[in-house]
Each structure stands twice: as C-alpha cells, then as structure tokens.
Design brief:
The chain folds into two domains: about 5-105 and about 145-180 and about 220-350, TIM Barrel (Alpha-Beta Barrel); about 395-515, putative beta-Galactosidase from caulobacter crescentus (Chondroitinase Ac, Chain A, domain 3). Helix content is about 30%, strand content about 25%. The protein contains 14 helices and 24 strands. The chain has a six-stranded parallel beta sheet. Helix 1 packs parallel to helix 3 and helix 8 (about 225-245) runs parallel beside helix 9 (about 280-285). The relative contact order is 0.10.
Length: about 525
C-alpha cells in the first residue's frame, strides 16, 4: 500500500508529502455543481483541463448525493470521479459539501431539509438583510447535535469508503465543509442558543489570568462572533475527527474573508475560520491540519501574512487566475496548494455555459478576455514550475526561495527583496485592469547565481557591501525534467535592463561582484 499523504513541517518549511515525496498542488477548483454529473465532467471539465500542466483538482462531494436516504449510501459519483482523475493523471482534493456551504445548508439531503424538528435552523434577530430580520435562515445551527452527528456519520462513511477503494491515494486531502459561518445575522438567537450565550464560556477558552464569565463578559463587542466561532469549530471538529478515525488524510477548512463593510453575518459569514477567529478555532478544532483563505479581496499579501501566523502552512483553494499570485505564494510562503475557482471556465470560448451566464449578468466582454488572458499566463507559470519542482523544494528548504508582488491594495510601485548575497529591487508599472498583475519568484541557486520567474515588472541587482554587480551571463529558458534548457543568451543591452513583460518568463543570471 502507498504511504498516506501528510502535511509535515511548519510554515514555509511545511510539505505536503504524497507517497513520501513533496507535492506542490498546481490545481484548480471546479464549479460548485460540476461534479454532480460524471457525464458533465467528461464533456465540459476534463477536456478544459488537459494540457494545462495541472497535477490536481479540487472537486466537491455532496452529502445529498452520498446519502440520499438516511443510512443508505451511494458512492457512484465518488467512484466515478476517482476513475476519471486516475485516467487524467490527476490527484484530487475533495471538498465535503455537508452541513454548510458558503454559510448555508444547501447541499444537505432532502430528508434533512424536510425534518425541521430534528434538524434545527438558525433563528436570527439582527441582520443587514431585511428579508431575514427575525426569521429562520437557510442554515442549520451548529448547536444542533442531531445534525452534526448525522453529518459526521456520513463523512466517516465516505472516508471509510475511500480507505477501501483508494489505496493508491488519488485523494490527497479533504476540505471539511465550505466557507463555514452564518449569513443573515451575527449569531443564532434560538432559545437554546440564547441559553448557551448567557452561560459561562467553556473552560478551554478561559485564560489563566482569570478571564471567566459569560460570552458577553469575556468577549464584549466580539461576543456574538466568538460564540458562533466556537460552535462552528466544535461542530467541524466532530465531523473531521470522525472522518480521520477512518482515514487520516490531511483535513482543513476554507474561509470567506472579512471584507467591507466589515459586518459579520452580512459582509462575510460570522464565526468562520477568519484570521481573527484563529485562537478559538485552534482550541476548538485540533484535528484540522490547515486553514485556507479564499482570496478575492485586493490585499493578497496581507491575507497570506495573516494565514501564515503561528507557522501555519499556506494553501489557497479559491482565488483569481493571476500568475503573479501563484508565483508570490510559492516564493514567499512555499504554498502547498494554489487553486483558482471555476478553473474549467477560464477559457470561456470552450465552456458555453459560463459565457452565457456572464452575458446574462451583463459582464463586459473585456472581462472575459482578461479572465482568459490571465488564466493562460497562470497555466504558463504552471508549465515553467512543473519541471523545476526539485529545485523549488530544495531552495525552500534552504531558505533561498523568495517572492514579490505588486499587490492591488498597495500604494508603492516598488519593493526590495533581500537575498542571502544581494538585494533585488523590483519596479512595477501602474495597476491596469487590462493587464496581468506584476510579480514573481526568485531562486537563489548559489553565490550570485539566481533564477527569476516573473511577469510585468523590472528587476535590478545591488550588492549590500558596496561592490558593483555586473551581469556575467543572462539567459532565458526553461527546465525539462530538472535540466536547464537554454533559450536566448541576453548579454547585449539586455544586461542593463531586466524587464519582464505581460507574459511569464524565466531568466537565469550569473552575476559578478566587482570592487
């Protein structure tokens, strides 16, 4: 039997090991309902992913399909997805759409939806959405023990099935639920929730310095959100630990991030695994191996900095198709997974359903063009990094891998990256929605020898000891099976102006310090 996938190490030094070898997930998350039809996957999804230099896909598994009647399980879709992924040479990250998906309970089985006495829904009091005010919302409460137990049983049955049918570990990790948290209100105001809210905070959260009391007394203005974070995290812990008892794959959660107007329950799901809730989630859900941000906000760098705190590994299950995002996440944080959402729809011309949807939403054609263009550059970055994984892994372990990015939320048009032997000044053009984001990564191969893989920026080299750095040699090229394949030698005027245009390009430099 092959070795069970694990996440080993911490922070930038963490590795996702598959059969004992580091595995960098050049991935993409498919649309929410694509995996509910194997025929649809074969017609629309897999053809769109071929030749993209991906090695993995994030795909949902739906509780309503796995357990259509209580106690009766059907793994037809799961087994078919495994067979298709193996045929395509892909690994899978499974997304368990159980009790919660994007703050709602839309993928639970019909027998759960119909039994409102047994499976209790959240009752809100406060909400920015008038239609929800003082009403039951379409979210099963994380305080409902019957619901959590039913989800945990289904999830454990799924992982037990994987243990039997996937001994080669096509599935390498599982995301438990999706964007957990409450929308339509800041917290549950049902009678049971009110009683628990007025009770003493669980002893696991009280601090040795004497923090003790009710949720309001301990957490003040943050009490409502802290209360929901605790109960969502405890629920996810019960579900994840039940699954791990059958098959101990790496498991984690993803987060819908805080965003304007910063109101929990309205702008983002209240109580989810946002960075400000890490202390509660880490205490309540020790079985989780990762917390993964879904990044659609401008401040990409800030989000990664937040999610890396506590030496957590970085995995990105949803984001935009920006090559610079991928290169920065890999270079600066050793990201284990990069996975833009709706990956099969990047080339809208090849996916009619997406083009029709965008037309109905009156999204301008130039947006379609930008999505396709950015996606193609991301796939080019996937291709260039595919054959240099050993080099990237070695550089990361040695602390010689770096990233840089013209973040959309930043005002500066330049930055400096400090390497072991020298400084690299990076200059960016002004933000332009019609062009890719600027950024890249640097691999320091040895003394004054480095690789720069970048897009839409200019780099300059400086010695930190006052010496002049001349370009001894500059080449463009690529790697094939770990071996450098040289393209042009750029030892003319290009020696003085190291520019990367609108396409991802790899350059190799050998510098000479001159006193």
């Amino acid at each position: 039997m092959n070795e069970l996938p694990i996440i080993a190490g911490k922070g930038k030094h963490a590795e996702l090991l598959v059969n004992g070898w580091p595995f960098l997930m050049r991935s993409g998350e498919i649309h929410n309902s694509s995996a509910s039809s194997l025929a649809y996957m074969d017609k629309h999804v897999w053809p769109a992913l071929r030749g993209r230099h991906m090695n993995s896909v994030l795909a949902p598994v739906y509780w309503e399909c796995v357990e259509p009647q209580e106690g009766s399980f059907d793994f037809t879709l799961v087994d078919g997805l495994l067979a298709q992924a193996r045929r395509e040479g892909m690994r899978l990250g499974l997304l368990w759409f159980g009790l919660w998906k994007n703050g709602e309970s839309s993928y639970v089985p019909a027998w759960v939806k119909e039994d409102r006495e047994r499976f209790k829904y959240v009752r809100t009091r406060e909400s920015g959405y008038p239609e929800y005010h003082g009403r039951t919302v379409f979210t099963i409460s994380p305080l409902c023990d019957d619901a959590i137990e039913a989800d945990a049983k289904a999830f454990a049955t799924l992982t037990a099935h994987l243990r039997e049918v996937d001994q080669e570990h096509t599935v390498i990790l599982i995301q438990v639920e999706n964007e957990v948290g409450l929308l339509g209100g800041v917290r549950d105001y049902s009678p049971e929730a009110e009683n628990r809210f007025r009770s003493v905070v669980p002893h696991e959260l009280t601090d040795p310095a004497g923090s003790f009391g009710t949720w309001q007394e301990v957490y003040g203005e943050y009490a409502d959100e802290a209360f929901m974070a605790w109960h969502y995290a405890r629920a996810v812990e019960r579900i994840a630990s039940a699954g791990k008892a059958e098959l101990a794959l790496p498991m984690g959660v993803n987060a819908w991030l805080e965003q304007e107007p910063w109101t929990p329950g309205d702008a983002y799901p209240s109580g989810g695994p946002q960075a400000k809730n890490f202390a509660i989630w880490s205490t309540a859900a020790p079985s989780l191996d990762f917390y993964a941000p879904d990044i659609y906000v401008p401040a990409f760098r800030d989000v990664l900095r937040e999610y890396a705190q506590g030496d957590r590994p970085i995995l990105i299950p949803e984001t935009r198709t920006e090559a610079a995002f991928y290169l920065y996440a890999l270079g600066a944080y050793g990201a284990l997974c990069f996975s833009p959402f709706g990956i099969e729809g990047v080339d809208a011309d090849s996916h009619e359903a997406d083009a029709q949807t965008m037309a109905l939403l009156k999204i301008p054609p130039e947006v379609l063009t930008a999505v396709k263009r950015n996606g193609l550059q991301l796939f080019a970055a996937y291709e260039l990094t595919e054959s240099m994984e050993d080099i990237l892994n070695s550089a990361r372990r040695q602390g010689r891998l770096y990233g840089f990015l013209r973040d959309g939320a930043a005002d500066s048009d330049s930055e400096t990256v400090e390497l072991a032997d020298l400084s690299v000044d990076v200059l960016y053009g002004p933000p332009d929605p019609a062009k890719p984001m600027g950024g890249g990564l640097i691999v320091e191969l040895g003394d004054y020898e480095l690789l720069v893989l970048a897009i839409r920026c200019v780099v300059r080299f400086r010695s930190r000891d006052g010496q002049t750095l001349e370009v001894l040699n500059k080449e463009e090229g690529r790697f094939e099976k770990g071996q450098w394949i040289r393209g042009r030698i750029l030892n003319g005027d290009e020696r003085y102006y190291h520019s990367f245009g609108d396409q991802v390009t790899l350059h190799r430099f050998k510098l000479l310090p001159v006193s």
